[in-house]
Design goal:
Helix content: under 10%
Strand content: over 45%
Structural class: mainly beta
Number of strands: 11
Oligomer: single chain
Largest sheet: 7 strands, mixed
Length: 125
């Protein structure tokens, strides 16, 4: 059925940028919001942000404020997370996720029911 595949992670230096991609399949992509989370071993999964089904509204967790940007290309069934001025505290596995129903959005991981496999982002000093 539905699948999400993240890509674009890697090892970067502090101050560098990365663009993560989340490719969706199996659903009408344009009808669903897309959330982004990140997780460090031993810590709870953290809400990074989300983009609405229309792309007109974005939601930012405090860690992403001013540095991260979300946008989507429905023709490609893809949502992008542009991360600028990365810092060592941004090191984590980043996940994209979609909620169980269309036209809904949440701010915690239980609000989502389909997850990608994650992509590792490592930021060195």
């Amino acid at each position: 059925q539905v699948q999400l595949v993240e890509s674009g992670g890697g090892l970067v230096q502090a101050g560098d940028s990365l663009r993560l991609s989340c490719l969706a399949s199996g659903r009408n992509f344009s009808s669903y919001a897309m959330g982004w989370f990140r997780q460090v071993p031993g810590r709870e999964r953290e809400f990074v942000g989300a983009i609405s089904w229309t792309g007109e509204i974005t939601y930012y967790g405090h860690s992403a404020k001013d540095r991260f940007t979300f946008f989507r290309d429905n023709a490609k069934n893809t949502v992008y997370l542009q991360m600028n001025n990365l810092q060592p505290d941004d090191t984590a596995v980043y996940y994209c996720a979609i909620p169980p129903g269309p036209r809904s959005v949440g701010y915690t991981w239980p609000d989502y029911d389909v997850w990608g496999q994650g992509t590792q982002v490592t930021v060195s000093s």
